[in-house]
Structure formats: structure tokens, C-alpha cells
Amino acid sequence: MGRIRARDVEHPEARLDHGGTAQIIPSEFTSGFELVVDGTPQSHVDLDDPTHLHFEYVVRMGAVIDQLPAGPLTAVHLGAGALTVPRYVEATRPGSRQQVIELEAPLAALVREHLPLPRAASIRMRIGDARAGAQKLPPALRGTCDLIVSDVYSGAQTPAHLTSLEFYRELATLLSATGVLLVNVADGPGLAFARRQVATIQQAFADVAVLADAQVLKGRRFGNLVVAASASTLPTEWLPRILAAGPHPAKIAQGPEVRAFAQNATVVTDADAVASPKPDASIFLR
Questions:
Q1: Which of 83, 86, 124, 248 stands the most exposed, by the fewest C-beta atoms within 10 Å?
Q2: 269 pLDDT band (50/70/90 cuts)?
Q3: How far apart are CA 21 and CA 74, in angstroms?
Q4: For the residues of 88-136, what is the DSSP string, one character each?
Q5: Looking only at Cα atoms, what is the longest distance across the chain?
């Protein structure tokens, strides 16, 4: 995550259909640009180097993607942002076929105009709700996806209907036997929401891991946790060493540690799902 920035009319911006404003702002502390929605940094993109991943949780997603078998991927991304992860996949695995579902047409248009995709990239944008859009994907994708990334935020919160067991079971039908789901989960001290998310995802997938800053994983401060899941054993042999090395040192919880993390947490269903907790604005200041 980045920091809150003051509104500047000179920066490209768009009014969103569901309220609020999206802006593209030059990054202050690194190369590239940030997509900021209502003061909340959503994405960072370096057009000159799409492999440059700035936000910590995106670095961790990239580390998992790098462990997948070599070659092009079939991927679905729920939530477009500035298309950071699709650009990374295209740069590191040319020839990948990618579908991106984004609710806000004005945001997608803003990004495509001011942060254009590589011309050769096979990245299709679909406008609509992430869950409904995933259900409407071509039948030929069912059971063939190598990667699904769920990183959907309305403002600074994940909508409730994208947190339930029913939702994750729907995503599971898109993945191949060895395909991997990556979910961005934001939570604060105590991690009550994250623990419920892990317990829920465990009901839909055979193997689950959690990647995060050690202090976040211990529930000591607000932050992002990446939940990785698969019907098969996750490809994590080298991840602990990679994550510990940085540039943002992190920890990966697996096996018994993940089960202990989610112990006594109740599974989320459509009937009782709630949006992720809203962070205090100070978290974006640095």
C-alpha cells in the first residue's frame, strides 16, 4: 500500500459509476505511477518495467506466481486496479491468456488510456461484478485456469459477497487440478476477519498457505495477507527462502500453522458474510 495523496486536478482522473474518484498519480518514492481511489492507493505500475512490484503483498503474489510451472498461464483476475499483476504475468510469461473482471468501466478506461497495456498482451477486460462475471466466463475455461487472483476492493474494503464459501467454491470450478488461487485479505489486530477467510478457503481447497509480514501474521498491526490455495499441493519449496530475503521480508504459514491460525474461526457463508474491516486512514501515511 502507498500513502494518501491530496487531490490534484492536473492528474488524470475519472468519476466512478458507484461514486468516488480514481486518479493516476506519479509515484513519489519509486518509478512508475499509482492508481488512487478516494485517497486510497489501489495499485502501482511501472510501465518501463512491469516486473517491478512495489506494494508488499503484490511482491508476495509475484513470488507464488513464479513458482508455477514454466510457460504461459491461463489466468483470471478479479479486480483490475491498474492491471499490475496481469502486466507482471505477461512480462514474465509471454503468451499467457488472461481475463480481467472489473466493476467500474470508468476506472478501466482511465487505466487503459493513461497506463496502456503492451500491444501484444492477450488480456481481455470484462466489465461487471467479480462474482457474476466469473460465473459468466466461457465454459471452456472451467477446470483449465492455472491462476486466479481475487483482489477486489470497494474503496478500502472487500465486498461481503466475495468472501463466502459459496464464492470460493465457484472459483474452484475454474481452476485446473494444479491451479492456484491467490486472495488479498486486509485485516487489523486480532485478524478475526482473516482467520475466518482462511477457515472458509480451507473448506474449498485441499492446501492453503498464508503469506504476510511477520507482525501482520501475528495480528499486531493492520496489513495485507496473501492466501494461496489449491486442490493440489502448493508449489512452495523455495518460497520461505525467497520471502525471507526481501525486498519486503515476510513469512509463509503452511500446514499445522495454517490450521492453528484458523482454529475456532467460523466459516463464512453467503448468509452471514460481511465486508472486510476498513483501515484507519493513517495506515496509508508514510
A1: 124
A2: very high
A3: 32
A4: HHHHHSTT-EEEEEES-HHHHHHHHHHSPPPTT-EEEEEES-HHHHHHT
A5: 51
To the nearest 10°, report the CA torsion of 228, 277, 105, 226: -10
Domain boundaries, the chain: 50-273
pTM (predicted TM-score)? 0.93
Tell me the three cell numbers of residue 161: 459477497
Asked whether 183 and 229 are in contact (CB, 8 A), the reply is: yes
Nearest to 77 by CA among 69, 85, 88, 67: 85
> Could you give the CA distance from residue 141 to residue 131 in angstroms, rounded to a whole number?
15
Is the previous residue joined to 235 through a cis bond, with omega within 30 degrees of 0?
no
* Helix H or strand E segment including 33: strand 33-37
> Which own/partner pairs from 47-53 qualify as long-range (CB within 8 Å, at least 24 positions apart)?
47/115, 47/116, 50/84, 50/87, 50/88, 50/90, 50/91, 50/118, 51/88, 51/91, 51/92, 53/84, 53/88
At 181-197, the pLDDT tens digits run 999 999 999 999 999 99
Say which CATH topology domain 50-273 has: Rossmann fold (3.40.50)
